[in-house]
Amino acid sequence: MNIKSLLLGSAAALIAVSGARAADAVVVAEPEPAEYVKICDVYGSGYFYIPGTETCLRIGGYVRYDIGGGDVGSFDGATSTDTEDGGSNDTWFKHARFSLKTWTGQETELGTLKTYTETRFNFQNNNRDSGAVGEVNAAGNGDTVSLNFAWIQLGGLRVGKDESAFNTFIGYAGNVIQDTLVPYGDFDTNVIQYYFDAGNGFSAVISLEEGAGDGTAGSYGVGTIDSYVPHVVGGVKYTQGWGAITGVVAYDSNYEEVAGKVRLDITPMQNLSLFIMAGYGTDDNLTDPTYAFPAGGRGFYKQWDGNWAVWGGGTYTINEKTSFNAQVSYDEGENLGVAANIAYDIVPGLTITAEVDYVNAGKIDEVDTLGSNHNWTGISAGDDDAIGGMLRFQRSF
After folding, report:
1. How far apart are CA 264 and CA 278, in angstroms?
2. Average pLDDT, the chain
3. Residues 301-327, buried b or exposed e (16+ Cβ, 10 A)?
4. Is 151:159 a contact under the CB 8 Å cutoff?
């Protein structure tokens, strides 16, 4: 046996041993493929599938910071008591908010199943004349967390916490911050609601509502229903390329009064949208001072002063980043509101808005007998008008 044969034999033996040991080695299982989040584009941008389900979820919201100054009655100003001499000082009205929103959607054999929630967290002082009553207008969190929306909808049927169809179906009164200098109806309520869309521009809604609030005697009626009988809202709308015409009517079950609004929206040119809205409501019981809870002429739906009111305004898009918004309002109680702002998108998702607001209460000097409240915005004693301004920063996501 020569050296070459010996080396070849040794190599063969080593390979055989190695192969035997390899056969006894532990086999490591292949890792399971990772389950990545899938985009859902059925309901618009921003949705994704919840892993393991057919439900699409979107998470969004905004962070906002408001700086207001001026008269209290403009909804922009504030006063506080001087810490040295106890007098009244004008001060800033500042308000920071974080709003968290969620949307879900899923297709079922009974139609689309949707939910929507919005929760708001606030830190602020208050838009009130604290200095006039010797109080410090303290900033803080306080009781400032609110559940603004939490509803479930299957097909056209919606139940849960929403805003009243008296406002949501017909639309808010313009793209201004202070759109309620002359109010057009309250908002927060639980609903059982059905929405119908014919697909040809015609739509309708019927809404059974609980209302909200316990009112302020002589200033504003009780909003929450006082029995099993709900408030009732109904509305119809016709929408085409030129705009829309909408009508809503509401029955206030507490005071047994009826209010209605009609609205016309038009788009005369691509960068200009205009609206005009008129409201009318009965108020015999709302102005009755003998009620256990006198409403001062203002209920959950007919919030304006007197029987009728009108609101008008529009938005003019100056360029892709800048828009001008304005609203003028007036009611039978001779309350005049004017609001105008410039909104500028600094970068996508970040908007700064500068607004000026003015209100005049024409009948503020009339004697208050609990039958009428002619000072909705809280104009300070001795004045009949108020002016102020607000600067808003908002990051939406």
Report:
1. 9
2. 92
3. bbbbbbbebbbbbbbebeeeeebebbb
4. yes
Q: Is residue 73 within 8 Å of residue 359, measured between CB atoms?
A: yes
Angle at 301 (CA atoms; ends 298, 304), nearest 5 degrees: 45
Contacts of 175 (CB under 8 A, 6+ apart): 313, 315, 323, 325, 341, 343
In a 3-state reduction of DSSP, which class is residue 130?
Answer: helix
Residues 158-173: b if buried by 16+ CB within 10 A, e if exposed: bebbbbbbbbbbbbbb
- Rounded to whole angstroms, what are the CA distances from 135 to 76, 84, 86, 126, 138? 18, 13, 9, 11, 9
What residues contact residue 51 under an 8 Å CB cut-off, 6+ apart? 35, 37
Contact 218, 294 (CB under 8 A): yes
CA 301 to mean position of chain CA atoms = 17
Gap between the Cα atoms of 109 and 106, Å rounded: 10
Please report which confidence band the pLDDT of residue 34 belongs to, taking 50, 70 and 90 as the band edges: low
Is 70 a residue whose pLDDT tops 70? yes
- Is residue 76 a contact partner of residue 68, using CB atoms and an 8 Å limit? yes
d(CA 64, CA 121): 10
Residue 143: pLDDT band (50, 70, 90) is confident
Q: What is the pLDDT of residue 3?
A: 43
Which residue(s) pair with 262 in the sheet?
247, 278
27 pLDDT band (50/70/90 cuts)? Answer: low
